[in-house]
Amino acid sequence: MRMTRRQALKRGLAGVGVIAAGGLVWRAWDNGAFNPGGGPPYELWRDWREARLDGKLAIARAGILAANAHNTQPWSFLIGENAISLHADPVRNLGSFDPFRREMALSLGCAVENMVLAANALGDCTVVLPEPGHPTSGLNREIPVASLLLEAGAGKPDPLFEAIDRRHTNRGPYAGRAVSAEIKDALGALANHADTRLLLFDDDPQRNTLGRLIVSATETIIADPEMAADSARWFRFSRADIDRYRDGITLDATGLPGLVNVAAKLIPEPSPAVADRQWLDGTRDVHVATAPLLGMIAVRGLYDQANAIEAGRLWQRIHLWATVNGLAAHPLNQPVEIVDRARQLGKPPTAAGELATLTGDPAWLPTFVFRLGYAERPARPSPRRAVEDVVTGMKD
Ligand SMILES: Cc1cc2nc3c(=O)[nH]c(=O)nc-3n(C[C@H](O)[C@H](O)[C@H](O)COP(=O)(O)O)c2cc1C
Prior knowledge:
The protein is of the alpha+beta class and 396 residues long. The chain has helices at residues 5-30, 43-51, 55-64, 102-122, 159-162, 181-190, 206-222, 225-232, 239-245, 258-266, 272-288, 305-324, 334-345, 350-359, 387-390, and strands at 75-79, 83-88, 124-128, 146-151, 197-201, 235-236, 249-250, 293-299, 328-331, 365-373, 391-393.
């Protein structure tokens, strides 16, 4: 059959279209667009139900699934005969974003809380933590941040332990629904350690003030090339990087709706400047604008390991409790990150002064800022490194 030139051109263009569409589908497939939460980097979340009571490794697994700054996973676990200890991995740091490793210590505190919950579900345990007086900047590989001395026991059921695999940071929009007084009271009751204080703001002018500080701190960070670069180092845009590193912040974790998330995986990686701008817009228009409740955890020693670990433990408890009770949670720690940065650069402590107006007591220093509410859509999991990559010593 003979074709006219016009027919040939049409068919040719259709062919190009099919190839282009095929290319897009391939790119989407290759970049994990159709499989968020699939594959080995997400295995620990999927296996949690079966593996959660599986000997001492279960305690390490619980630690790995904890919240942690930028998903740096700054830890390793040493398993002994009747003990398991948690160690910092100082190389996995955020540089100028966390110059005194305060957030690294908070992250380790989150892991401690999950580990204690797991140890108590399996049997019994005594926890040994650092005495006050050790600076967060002194975290090292050798001296454990926490040791859990494991004892035989029947183990106690605990809904917080059961929620470990359902807790994910939710960066999407929250619905308008207010957080009730009963919920705020229950959250307050979680802050029962003498070294930490929980402050919740759902009324103006304080809620507005904290929201404004979160947005202006984000502006300060993206205008600081070193901080912006140290943050960007932990962003994993491609599926290949997620498979390779199994850490960091991913597109799936940014809280985009399903189809937008797929589309974002089809387009080339945004430039750092565009990504920063999107972060700022999201912080202002989604994170702060839709949050019914903002909060802070304060301590007396901002750069004290013992205080930071207790603050991290409290955050993990709050987030697990929120998960059990149908609430979403999201750290928004930019205001404290610029407090650290000003201290590092020897600049006036402007941000610290502004945060102090919210605590009402200069002895208490905010170390963790967050929002809480009812999410419009569920959060997706973040990747984690395998147990074998972070556990040393005897395996059971
Ligand atoms: C100390 C600390 C600081 C954090 N700061 C922020 C933050 O400022 N913005 C944010 O979106 N998430 C923040 N996070 C959340 C982590 O990025 C998140 O826990 C990590 O990516 C792992 O994801 P997951 O919590 O869903 O398991 C922080 C978490 C911790 C423990």
